[in-house]
Amino acid sequence: MGDYSKALEFYEKALKIFKKALPSNHPDLAAFYNNIARVYYNMSDYPKALKFQEKALGIFGRALPSNHPDLATSYDNFGGVCQAMGEYLKALEYQEKALKIREKTLPPNHSNLATSYNNFAVLSRKMGNYSKALEFQEKALSIFEKAQPPNYPSLATSYNNIGDVHHNKGDCSKALEFYEKSLKIREKVLPENHSLLATSCNNIGMAYFGKGDYSTALSFLEKSLAIKQKSLPREHPSIKTTEHIIGYVKEKM
């Protein structure tokens, strides 16, 4: 929390200087609003994040051409905050705007286009549209596989997200296939206590639980818990949730 507070203090001081020196619709001001929004987003203060994303988007919308890449990014960021707040229809509206710009202006294998496909897929999954989610996750994966090295983190994210869709559809075996691909990459490129490793272990554990393999599920869930206990505050909700799930798995054994 201290680092976020320092970041906010820095950005707000810089913003005051730039507001005096620049016109009110200058893109550099929008960039500062965006940076402040990202800090609030990381702090899970989504209403404040949305407030600053709206300011950034307002400037970009007035100052940039309608197909400018920075405008697409601003639409995407705004949609991401809406999604975090559970406003899925509003998020969909803005992420579709971002996707349309990127499809018109970027090469078909550009990583930003893959990011847009991925964001659209995650939102579709949360809205229960699994076929659409899978369609866009596979588009994102196709780009990442061509554009990135085989152990690149974005590839691991894409595998994990495809696993999520299959898990939501009830196909735990297919979910495991992609979760394990994701974990294999993350184990190679991330520190041993990284939160994404905990996420991967948790996802694999839950997939094994869905298959009725409780002992293997317990093994992965305990790995996830061990990472969280080393990397998160003791009272963090994620630790409590994992402890509760482990207790439930033990009852089923």
Largest sheet: number of strands, sense, barrel closure: none
- Kindly state the number of beta strands: 0
Radius of gyration: 20 Å
Beta-strand share of residues: under 5%
Structural class: mainly alpha
Question: Which parts are unreliable, with pLDDT below 50 for 5 consecutive residues or more?
Answer: none
CATH architectural grouping of the domain at 1-105: Alpha Horseshoe
In CATH, what is the homologous superfamily of the domain at 1-105?
Tetratricopeptide repeat domain
Provide a count of the helices: 12
Shape: globular
The CA-CA distance between the termini, in Å, is 39 Å
Helicity level: over 70%
- On the 0 to 100 scale, the average pLDDT is 91
CATH class of the domain at 1-105: Mainly Alpha
CATH fold title of the domain at 1-105: Serine Threonine Protein Phosphatase 5, Tetratricopeptide repeat
Order of helices and strands: HHHHHHHHHHHH
Pfam family, one: TPR_12
Protein name: Kinesin light chain
Keywords: Repeat, TPR repeat
TPR repeats: 30-63, 72-105, 114-147, 156-189, 198-231
